[in-house]
Automatic annotation (TrEMBL):
Family: Belongs to the NrfD family.
Protein topology in the membrane: Multi-pass membrane protein
Localization terms from the record: Cell membrane
Protein name: Polysulfide reductase NrfD
Amino acid sequence: MTFEPIWGAIIAWYLFLAGLGGGAFVTSAFLGWRHPEAVSMRKIGHLVAPIVVIVGLCLLMFDAKAGLMNPLRFALLLTNFGSVMTWGVVFLGGFTVVSLVVVALDFMKKRVPVWLDIAGVAFGIAVAMYTGALLGVCKTFPLWNNALLPILFLVSAVSTGAASVLLISIFKHADEFNRAGVLKKFHFCLPVIELVLVAALLFITCTNSTAGWSAVMSLLVGQHAPLFWIGLVLVGLVLPTVLETWLLFFSPKEFEESRKAHWISAASDAGVLVGGFLLRYLVVVAALPLTVVVPML
């Protein structure tokens, strides 16, 4: 028996972009705390955040064809606060408003109030975790119905958000990039944590049901194995960790600030972004539902 995924690449892109937007804003707040001199890098994070979230929401509306033809259906999502989707609308709406206000303040060359920064970080974290909780609502899918998934998506969101800010900064503001050592070391830790969480998620999933075992096997040795091992594990997690370990801890200081090192960092950050998308895509398409056996009467 075969099973067609209920969601596909469009939803994976939505989950990826929503998390990336939240992570980019969190990265900007982190820069304000540890690297206040990196003004341009902060503005990059502020700008990336609303753009990618809005693009993701447009993809979601395109995928939700019924809602696209009847926009009132989206408004009705705000009528049930016992629903994860309703809270998702609140988090996404609040984050979009806050991030757009921050972008406007940047363009007017005005300082972003601390309380607004805190609100943006809170909404950004909520959006990142919501993308995992949204899948978890489907309790018949063991790969999704796991308490680790929102945490994994949060770590991945912060990692991809930081990667997007660092990647753009390499080419636009290399001087600030060179001085953002604390951010780079913090970002270096995230793929390692993500790798541990992925392993834990798969171990828990494969031991709780036959459907969970089948979903995990499709990732490890089945039809999704090439994307999982080459795309997610190698390109998205292991390669960035190896490259950043060498750059941060073993390369000479003068080389770390060279243009060649910048290209290596760019490859590392691009790998993180590829891995961030593939994580969501594989989680979406590899999930299998529990089968219900009805006894014959």
